Amino acid sequence: MEEFIPLISEVGFPNAVTLFLLYRIEAKLDSVVQSIQSLQERLNGK
Fold first, then answer.
1. What InterPro entries does this protein map onto (predicted)?
2. Hey, how many other C-beta atoms are within 10 angstroms of the C-beta on 8?
């Protein structure tokens, strides 16, 4: 049991932080994609 505590702190915490940051970046990437698509529509409309 004592062997798992360092394993969780060395692997589990960085994984949790990485997943959290990827989730946040995904939301921002969605807005960037929408902006690029609307820009393309605006340029094609002219």
1. YvrJ
2. 11
